[in-house]
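Bug report (template v2)

What were you trying to do?
Predict the complex of my protein with fe (iii) ion.

What happened?
Run completed; filing so the output is reviewed.

Input:
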Amino acid sequence: MAKKTTTPKGKIAPKADAADKLRDFMVDGLKDLYWAEKALVKNLPKMAKNATSQHLKTAIQGHLKETEGQVKRLESAFKALKLKPQAVKCDAMDGLVKEAKGIMEETEPGAVRDAAIIAAAQKVEHYEIASYGTLATYAKLLGEKDVLKLLLETLKEEKTCDKDLTKLAKTEINIKAK
Ligand code: FE
Ligand code: FE
Ligand code: FE
């Protein structure tokens, strides 16, 4: 538990329930991702709907199915830690989802909007890759093997999705948008 001290200017004062152990910080990360994945389950359909390329629609819909599984996997991770699943708002994903909506509004439907959707989707995937990668490192260090396994399964899906989007952009979408 954080001690109550005066905070020098520019330093962040910890909240009363601030994590002081890596395990607690890892759990905070799981809560953040649980919110983020659920936000994506809600928002990926909008991105698929606004895509013109059938390949892009299919890619997003496929990742939506994976994302539903990732939500379940996080629930299993909470269970492995003997905790109830809890979502805490991920400000970053909230922002990335808002930005995705913004860039769809700023692009004409067709190849340019498709390029914009890929750009937005890859920002999402990179955030997820960073988050799952970090939490997997913590889980390994803490000897949480079941959690580690679950996180690595999802990490692999996020990386594959990112690679597939790069390929789709380079071989089809960006060329059409040009
Ligand atoms: Fe995900
Ligand atoms: Fe977050
Ligand atoms: Fe993803």
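What did the reviewer find?
The helical segments are 22-50, 54-80, 91-105, 111-141, 145-177. Residues 128 and 158 are 7 Å apart (CA to CA).
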